[in-house]
Structure formats: C-alpha cells, structure tokens
Amino acid sequence: MQEDILVIGAGIAGLACAQALKAGGMNPLVVDKARGPGGRMTTRRRDGWQADLGAQYFTAREPAFRAQVAAWAHAGHCDRWPDQPVYLEGRRGTPVADGQERWVGRPRMSAITRALSAELPLRTERRVTGLVPTDRGWVAEFADGDRSGDMPRVVVAVPAPQAAALLPEGANTLHAALEPVRMTPCWTVIAHFPQPLALGYHAAFVRDDGPLRWIARDSDKPGRPPGETWVLHAWADWSQDHLELPGERVAWTLLDAFAQVTGAAHRPAGYQAHRWRYAASARPLDAGYLLDREAGLGLCGDWCAGDRVEGAWLSGHRLGQAITG
Ligand SMILES: Cc1cc2nc3c(=O)[nH]c(=O)nc-3n(C[C@H](O)[C@H](O)[C@H](O)COP(=O)(O)OP(=O)(O)OC[C@H]3O[C@@H](n4cnc5c(N)ncnc54)[C@H](O)[C@@H]3O)c2cc1C
C-alpha cells in the first residue's frame, strides 16, 4: 500500500492523528527518532522495576477523549488511579480535594501509545532533519543521510521548538503561529528502594521550598510490579537553571531533596535521571492544530491545544479529521 502522508513523531498526538487519518481512508507512515513510540508518555524499564518517566496520569474532560479513554480501559490499556495525591508541606500531607478522576496506562503509561502504534506503520530511530518541497509534495531528510519518498502531505507532531526547526523557511504563516509558544524543561529522577518507605501517601505536589514539584510512588499505580519505586519531578525554573548539570549530580540533588521533604531514611538501590528539554508548554496555543492545506503541511501536539495528554490527543485527532474531512 502506497503511503500518502508522513507523520513525524510517535507521541500521543502523532499517533492519534495517524489513527484518524487511517480511519478517514489515508495511508499514513509514522516515523520517530526514538527507539520506541510514546514520546513524553514513555515508561523506563530497568532490571525488575519500571517507572513512568514523563506523564504521570491524565484527565479526560472532552467527550471525544472520554470515549477514547473508555475504549482503552475496556481493552485493558488504561485504568483509573484511585489514589488521591496530597499537598506536601513540612512533611505533612493534605489531600488534594479536586474531585479529579485520574487515569494511567496499564501496566505502564507507555501501554497506550504501544497499543495505538501496533495498528499503524511505524519506523523508529528515524530522526527527521529537514523537509524539502518537491513537485509532488515533500521529501523528508533523515539524520543518517537517507531520504523518504515523495509524500503529498506531512504532519509534524513534535514539540514546538523542534517543529520550528523542521519547517522550511518559506512556511512563514506556520513559523509565525509557532513563534509565541514557549516550552519549559523538567529534570526527572526515577528511583527504586530496597525497603518500603511507608510515607502514608501515594503522590504529592510538593509545597516546600526546593527543587521538587511532584513525587509519586509509581509502584502504587494499577497493574505495576510490586516494589518501592518513586518518580521525582523538579520545578521548571530549577530545571532551566540546572539544564546542563550532569545527570548524576541532578539525581543526587533531587534524591537529597526527596529525603528532606519526606523524611525517608533509605537510599535507593537503583536510580536514573532524565532531562526533558521540552516537557510542558508554558504558553500553549488554543488553535487545536495548525494546517496549511495548500502546502500539505499540518502541525499538532500538546502545545497546540492547552498542554497535557488530553490536549495532545485532541490536537492530533482533530488534525487527522480535518485533513481527511
Ligand atoms: C515530566 C513530565 C510530566 C508530565 N506530566 C503530565 C501529567 O501528569 N498529565 C498530563 O496530562 N500530561 C503530562 N505531561 C505532558 C504530556 O506528557 C504531554 O502533553 C504529551 O505526552 C505530549 O504528546 P505529544 O505527542 O504532543 O508530544 P511528544 O510526546 O513529545 O511526542 C513527540 C515525538 O516526536 C519525536 N520527535 C521529535 N523530534 C523528532 C524528529 N526530528 N524526527 C523524528 N521524531 C521526532 C519524539 O521522539 C517524540 O516521540 C508531562 C510531561 C512531562 C515531560
């Protein structure tokens, strides 16, 4: 089957877009620079333990996304996370009483994007470095020097700064639309402890001064292997100020902060730091998606639709429908 549209990025936005394109009768090809799909919904798996590295949970408000989440839940790809987080201040946790229903991938966050990508043609470890206009649409250039065939249309489903770098110089309207978007970083540490920490809460928004914004006991989420696994997220400002610090130093700084805010006495048996250079959109657009029909170029992602997993899915889904509709 001849592919007629290239989707760059196998995060939730790119995959939702490709799914809608396929449902509308097109033949998408999805490419991603990483070793697997998922983007910021990825899960890191270590020897005998695992942790969700990016998105911690998601909410579902819009009817279209609620229906999709219900279908994923029915298929066993996601589940409600019944544990309510707390606000943590001075080692005291106050329940977050926001009435929010929180969802997680099951048995890991990446289960959702794995399930989506299983039904789509996906090529991984394909970093696109540029898009060249041709008589028949576009050719994508890859980092290894390879080039795609002619594609009548292209969807760019990557964080805004990376999208701007891929757009050809002549795409002035799209460049102008992207310009105001600002994305912020997040240093993350995942850690596995040999003994239970017995902290009395499952996840917390940290309100003490210091580098930590969020901590979560990943092993409490539905379907996870037993153990004592935590995810620590730093504030965006702290992450920006320490963006180029070696991962090992960041890991110990955040682990020390974790011991400080929780009072946990044990040291981890295994840990890893990860830098998300483009974690969140400080100023997302409310356009939903960007589409230049004449050029055959579309853009989607969380930064187009209010940030977060739901926004990313809606952005990709609606762009796919707009292209085929
Ligand atoms: C630390 C952290 C915590 C978060 N917590 C939450 C949360 O609790 N709840 C929530 O709803 N959301 C959360 N989010 C946000 C959520 O993860 C994102 O909004 C959503 O996953 C974005 O999806 P996306 O498809 O738009 O982008 P991405 O997931 O970033 O996907 C883009 C894809 O494009 C690929 N790519 C980039 N450049 C290229 C290239 N040149 N060539 C080929 N491929 C390329 C990348 O490898 C990636 O797979 C969090 C994010 C982070 C980082």
UniProtKB/TrEMBL annotation:
One GO molecular function term? Answer: oxidoreductase activity
Q: Look up the signal peptide feature and give its range.
A: none
Q: Name one Pfam family in it.
A: Amino_oxidase
**Which positions fall inside the Amine oxidase domain?**
103-321
| Cross-referenced SUPFAM superfamilies | FAD/NAD(P)-binding domain (SSF51905)
This protein's name? Amine oxidase domain-containing protein
Q: Which organism is it from?
A: Alkalispirillum mobile
